[in-house]
Design brief:
about 25% helix, alpha/beta, binds manganese (II) ion, 6 helices, 9-stranded mixed sheet, single chain, 12 strands, 3-stranded mixed sheet, Spore Coat Polysaccharide Biosynthesis Protein SpsA, Chain A, binds uridine-5'-diphosphate
Amino acid sequence: MDDTDCTHGRFSPDNWQFGGRGMPQLCKALQKIALIIPYRNRDKHLKTWLHYMHPFLQKQQGDYGIYVVEQVEDSTFNRAKLMNVGFTEASKDYHYDCFIFSDVDIILMDERNLYRCSQNPKHMANSLDKFNFRLPYQTLFGGIVAFTKEQFLKVNGFSNLFWGWGGEDDELYNRVVAAGMKVERPNPNISRSRVLTHPRDPGNEETRMSLHLINKAAQFMHEDGLNSLKYEIVSHTKHKLFTKITVNIGSSQQ
Ligand code: UDP
Ligand code: MN
């Protein structure tokens, strides 16, 4: 068996496990990758994402698992907290060392754009069709980000305090900088991606608190994040194409 990271070659369909786990057979993967998808009521997008991204991950010879983290309550959506839950629960499942946090509606177009972690946290959604494949602003850190376990622990994960749409990604960017790291991005020619269109979801209205919190990232990151995360698992089910973690994360009122 080849002991270098394998990113090209053949995927053996024998190497497949329930819960959305794939792994290469003919070479040894250097990274074990968990894909974490925040989710509520986006069944059509999830089906599309799985349809395109499983073959994509397999062609890249990934040793990977897919975790769909569903917020059970009707309370305001909290994308960032679901990401923290995904990181914590996936870590109990397998010794993953790379975590890729991805929206359910972004489909990568080029297989050279590797679902892998780098020396620094990596922003992978830097070339989206909806922004004409350009980066709208330099500190954008939304959509898809990849962290090694060490990098994610260093920033104490995402903030848990962003209820509603917006800001949690900018806050995470500030954590990365405050922790002395920088953001990497792939070449925009190979990171071209499609975004599935949708109206703003009910229960995910734009958050009003966010500017204040974003600017305080360096001050509060060590007390708000993975180390203050509270949730209750409602179910943890291995489906054929993904592991679904349904979770009660409370609400902003608590
Ligand atoms: N999301 C979801 N259900 C919701 C709201 C958000 O599943 O009701 C998840 C989904 O993965 C989505 C991500 O959170 O892609 C980010 O939300 P949204 O797509 O609204 O953000 P934007 O399109 O503005 O980047
Ligand atoms: Mn979206």
